[in-house]
């Protein structure tokens, strides 16, 4: 279950609405042509592979995180330097062990609470795969698995069933950053992909560009929203909320620049896979036990 683009038409404060309107009006004319090119490239099937080879990327604008994962509208310091955090010394990665996941939804609920995620939108979610003896695959994710999974009948002879947590992959060659027309999506020095909400115009290009369905337009703020690996936590030495909430240790987060880190050792020594490797986006979210049925 990937995130939807639809926006619930709710009122925003007059000042905020006026500011957003002026930015959107200013860029609407130029953006319409860019949108046409994006759609055409996607229809041709070459969008992601072409972008992965490009080297023209917006320069990262490091900023200080604030509670809830929101980025400030004005600040030029590197994230976390006020408490001694040095982003250049880190390179974060995420590991999901599918064989351990029980589909309880604790991670989804923890993310919702930590980041004030609106109902029926998800920064992380869990999918259930049911594979029949004839290799037919049924996938479901009721309400993003926030409340777990009820028993279900597929009508097939199910030979294997498993759960797959999903989230933003924080790709090294990310199409969302390259396609943002205003530079609102950017990479931090420690390798995370974030959104500068003060620049975002809510055009939705990044939502369309993400091949993993991990972005959505927030129904209240009308700007792009996504998983941040709980940047406001990890820059203080804490784990992402979803990792801490998992009761079976299926989610792991670590620093690949630290050779003693558990995640770094798993990636270096075990058979890990990434989603959609053919797109060459170089995800930094790795999976243990990932079957060929998952995409």
Task: Give a short summary of the structure.
This protein has 295 residues and is an alpha+beta fold.
Written account of the structure:
The chain has 295 residues and is of the alpha+beta class. The chain has one domain (1-295): Alpha-Beta Plaits (2-Layer Sandwich), CATH 3.30.70. The protein has a 4-stranded mixed β-sheet. A 3-stranded antiparallel β-sheet has the order 3-2-4, covered by helices on one side. The protein has helices at residues 14-43, 47-52, 106-115, 175-179, 205-209, 231-234, 241-245, 262-269; strands at residues 92-97, 124-132, 137-140, 158-167, 185-187, 193-195, 216-217, 224-225, 251-255, 272-273, 285-288. The model is unreliable at 4-82 (pLDDT under 50).
């Amino acid at each position: 279950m990937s995130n939807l683009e639809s926006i619930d038409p709710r009122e925003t404060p007059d000042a905020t609405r006026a500011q957003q309107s002026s930015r959107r009006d200013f860029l609407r004319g130029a953006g319409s042509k860019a949108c046409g090119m994006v759609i055409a490239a996607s229809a041709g099937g070459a969008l992601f592979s072409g972008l992965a080879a490009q080297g023209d990327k917006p320069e990262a604008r490091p900023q200080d995180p604030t509670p809830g994962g929101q980025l400030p509208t004005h600040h030029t310091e590197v994230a976390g330097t006020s408490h001694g955090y040095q982003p250049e010394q880190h390179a974060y990665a995420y590991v999901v062990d599918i064989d351990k996941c029980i589909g309880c939804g604790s991670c989804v609920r923890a993310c919702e609470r930590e980041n004030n995620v609106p109902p029926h939108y998800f920064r992380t979610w869990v999918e259930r795969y049911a594979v029949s003896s004839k290799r037919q695959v049924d996938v479901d994710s009721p309400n993003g698995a926030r409340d777990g999974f009820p028993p279900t009948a597929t009508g097939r002879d199910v030979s294997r069933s498993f759960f797959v947590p999903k989230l933003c992959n924080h790709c090294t060659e990310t199409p969302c950053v390259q396609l943002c027309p205003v530079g609102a999506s950017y990479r931090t020095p420690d390798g995370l992909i974030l959104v500068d909400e003060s620049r975002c115009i809510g055009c939705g290009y990044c939502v369309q560009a993400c091949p993993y369905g991990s972005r959505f337009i927030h129904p209240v703020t009308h700007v792009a929203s996504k998983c941040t690996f709980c940047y406001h936590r990890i820059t203080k030495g804490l784990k992402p909320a979803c990792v801490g909430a998992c009761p079976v240790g299926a989610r792991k987060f670590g620093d690949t620049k630290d050779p003693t880190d558990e995640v770094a050792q798993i990636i270096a020594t075990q058979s890990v896979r990434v989603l959609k490797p053919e797109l060459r986006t170089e995800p930094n979210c790795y999976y243990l036990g990932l079957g060929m049925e998952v995409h």
